[in-house]
From TrEMBL:
Domain of life: Bacteria
Top-level taxonomy: Bacteria, Pseudomonadati, Pseudomonadota, Gammaproteobacteria, Oceanospirillales
Keyword Nuclease: no
CDD domains associated with the record: MDH_chloroplast-like
InterPro entries membership: L-lactate/malate_DH, Lactate/malate_DH_C, Lactate/malate_DH_N, Lactate_DH/Glyco_Ohase_4_C, Malate_DH_type2, NAD(P)-bd_dom_sf
Name of this protein: Malate dehydrogenase
UniProt cross-references to Pfam families, sorted A to Z: Ldh_1_C, Ldh_1_N
C-alpha cells in the first residue's frame, strides 16, 4: 500500500459531496491501492449535517480511508493537501443563469484561494466545481500566487460527458464509441460543445448527423442541460456532477492514454483566446500533467462560438477583478 494522500472536499455536507465523498472513499478517484485522508470543509451552520456524513463514511468501513478531518476552517481543511475539490457554494434555482451566482459565491473563492496558497502542497491539483466555476477558479488562482499557474482548474467535464452521451444516443451508439468531443469556454449557456473534431466509430461525427441537428438541437441541449435537470429534479445535478469531478481529477492524476478530454484551465493564448481566463480546452493528460491539444483547424462557425464564450468569461473577469489579490 502507498502512503495516503490528502484530499479536500468543500461543501462537504451538500448534495454533490454526498455522492463525491463516498466514491472517492471507495477508490474511484485514485484506484484501489491509494489510501486517502479526507479533509471535509463546511460552514459553521452545516457542521451538524457534516458530522452525520462523517458518521456514515465511518459506517462504511472503507478500506482506503485512513483519517477524516472535518472542519469549518479553510486553513485546516487545506493543510498539506494533494488534491482539492472546491464544491461548496450556492447552486442556482429555476430561471437563474449560473453567472447570477457570481456575487454570492465569489467571496468564498477569494478566501479559499488564500487558504490554498498558505496551506496546500505546491503541486496540489485543484478543481473548482462551485458555480460560476470558471470565474470562481480564476478568483482562487488570483489569490494563490505561490501555487504554480495551472494547478487550479475548473470543471467543464460534465458538459463534455453530456455531449458524448447526447451524440451516442442520437446515433444509437455507446458513449465509449465517441472520441474527441470538445467543450470550449465557459461552463454556462455560452459554452461551445464542438463536434467538428469528433469521431464516432472512427468516422467523422459531422458526417453522421445533419448540420441542423448539430446547431439547433445538440448544441442548445448540451448548453441547457443543467437547467433541464433543475426543472426535472427541482435541484441541480448532483451525482452526475460528482462523477464528472472524479473523471476530471482521475484523468489529470492518472492520464488519458492519448484520449482528448475537456478541462477549463488558464488560457495560454492557444487558439487566440485571451491569456489568463479559465477557458475550457481540449487536453490530454500524462504523468500528472495536462497539455492543451494544439493545431486543430477551427472553421468560421466554431470560431464565432468560441469567441462568444470567451467574451462572457472576459466580462465575468471584469466583474470580479476587485477580489483579485495584489
Ligand atoms: P448544495 O447547496 O447542496 O451544497 C453546497 C454546500 O456548500 C452546502 O452544504 C453549503 O453549506 C456549503 N458551503 C457554502 N459556502 C461554503 C464555504 N464557504 N465553505 C465550505 N462550504 C460551503 O449544492 P450542490 O448541489 O452540492 O452544488 C454545489 C455547487 O456546485 C453549486 O454552486 C452548483 O451550482 C455547482 N455545480 C457545478 C457543476 C459543474 O458542472 N461545474 C455541476 C453541478 C453543480
Ligand atoms: C449543471 O450544469 O448541472 C450545474 O452547473 C448546475 C446548474 O446550475 O446548471
Amino acid at each position: 500500500m502507498k502512503e495516503p494522500v490528502r484530499i479536500a472536499i468543500t461543501g462537504a455536507a451538500g448534495q454533490i459531496s454526498y455522492s463525491l465523498i463516498f466514491r472517492i472513499a471507495a477508490g474511484d478517484l485514485l484506484g484501489p491501492k491509494q489510501p486517502v485522508i479526507l479533509h471535509l470543509l463546511e460552514i459553521p451552520q452545516a457542521m451538524d449535517a457534516l458530522e452525520g456524513v462523517v458518521m456514515e463514511v465511518n459506517d462504511c468501513a472503507f478500506p482506503l480511508v485512513r483519517d477524516i478531518v472535518a472542519t469549518d476552517d479553510p486553513n485546516v481543511a487545506f493543510k498539506d493537501i494533494d488534491y482539492g475539490l472546491l464544491v461548496g457554494s450556492r447552486p442556482r434555482g429555476p430561471g437563474m443563469e449560473r453567472k447570477d451566482l457570481l456575487e454570492a459565491n465569489a467571496e468564498i473563492f477569494s478566501v479559499q484561494g488564500k487558504a490554498l496558497n498558505d496551506n496546500a502542497k505546491r503541486d496540489v491539483k485543484v478543481l473548482v466545481v462551485g458555480n460560476p466555476a470558471n470565474t470562481n477558479a480564476l478568483i482562487a488562482a488570483e489569490n494563490a500566487p505561490d501555487i504554480p499557474s495551472g494547478q487550479i482548474t475548473a470543471m467543464v467535464r460534465l458538459d463534455h460527458n453530456r455531449a458524448k452521451s447526447q451524440l451516442a444516443q442520437k446515433l444509437g451508439k455507446h458513449a465509449n464509441d465517441v472520441k474527441t468531443v470538445i467543450v470550449w469556454g465557459n461552463h454556462s449557456s455560452t459554452q461551445f460543445p464542438d463536434l467538428s473534431h469528433c469521431k464516432v466509430d472512427d468516422k467523422p461525427a459531422l458526417d453522421q448527423v445533419d448540420q441542423d441537428w448539430y446547431e439547433n438541437d445538440f448544441i442548445p441541449t448540451v448548453q441547457q442541460r443543467g437547467a433541464a435537470i433543475i426543472k426535472a429534479r427541482g435541484a441541480s445535478s448532483a451525482a452526475s456532477a460528482a462523477s464528472a469531478a472524479i473523471d476530471h481529477m482521475r484523468d489529470w492524476a492518472l492520464g488519458t492514454e492519448g484520449y482528448v478530454v475537456s478541462m477549463a484551465v488558464p488560457s495560454d493564448g492557444s487558439y487566440g483566446i485571451e491569456p489568463g481566463i479559465m477557458y475550457g480546452y481540449p487536453v490530454t493528460c500524462d504523468g500528472g500533467k495536462y497539455k492543451i491539444v494544439e493545431g486543430l483547424e477551427i472553421d468560421d462557425f466554431s470560431r464565432s462560438r468560441m469567441k462568444a464564450t470567451e467574451d462572457e468569461l472576459r466580462e465575468e473577469r471584469e466583474a470580479v477583478k476587485h477580489l483579485f489579490g495584489k
